[in-house]
């Protein structure tokens, strides 16, 4: 599934926080959006799928396999999000409902879109929990989010994002809240599942070292604009824009401190 973003702009309170941004993710391709805090990465992703804050004015074009998403009625957007796009966000605890079991939440996209009976949904949740490497899947599906570790909660987040087999996955800093070892494990899992599904991917991060493990192409954002783009390997070795240079230095520093 392809995603074509052209001239995307987001204005909040008269301030342009995303400005004339264009990028393309081809079928099965993986693109990274990188930039410092506040550069507009999250708003880009959220605006593209109709989840920008209410006060945001979003203009431009976002084509999902040729279908315009900007201006699409919320009902339609919700359907597209549920069936064609999977999302994983930074903080799984706030994304999860504390009052519902993990299994119920993993199966929710299926219950909504395939109208699966409860029993069948539970079986699929157990299967998905196993696939993302949650320990003792039969038991884990009956637990509540607070009973899991941060890494386990993010595995749940990934299971939810992938269970309906979306053709496009949007991940916004999915490993930032985790310690380095867990981060590595979750990234490896994430990459394997995206590969197996052949899904297209947009991966948001401020960490070039993380990005290098997941995507091939990258767009560097600064103050809502694309300041550099290209292959991750090329940019890691020869960054041109000062912002990109800063990100490369930061990535080197984390790689050294981790080794
Ligand atoms: N609801 C909002 N109201 C006003 N300003 C906002 C709102 N959401 C985001 N912004 C502003 O828009 C800009 C871009 O924010 P965004 O969250 O997209 O950045 P980011 O690159 O994802 O940052 P981070 O890495 O810290 O998540 C920031 O200056 C932010 O303060």
List the SSEs and their pairings.
Layout: E1 3-12, E2 15-25, E3 30-35, H1 41-48, E4 56-64, E5 67-68, H2 74-83, E6 85-88, H3 92-95, H4 102-113, H5 118-131, H6 137-140, H7 150-162, E7 168-172, H8 180-197, E8 200-205, H9 208-214, E9 217-222, E10 225-231, H10 232-237, H11 242-258
Parallel strand pairs: 3-8, 3-9, 6-7, 7-8
Antiparallel strand pairs: 1-2, 1-4, 4-5, 9-10
This protein binds adenosine-5'-triphosphate.
Adenosine-5'-triphosphate binds next to helix 1.
Structure characterization notes:
The protein is α/β, with parallel strands linked by helices and 259 residues long. It has eleven helices and ten strands. The strands form two sheets. The chain has a six-stranded mixed beta sheet with strand order 6-7-8-3-9-10, with helices on both faces. The chain has a four-stranded antiparallel beta sheet with strand order 2-1-4-5, with helices on one face. The longest helix is centred in the C-terminal third of the chain and has 18 residues, at 180-197. It is globular and about 55 Å long. The relative contact order is 0.17. Adenosine-5'-triphosphate is lined by residues 12-13, 17, 35, 37-43, 53, 206.
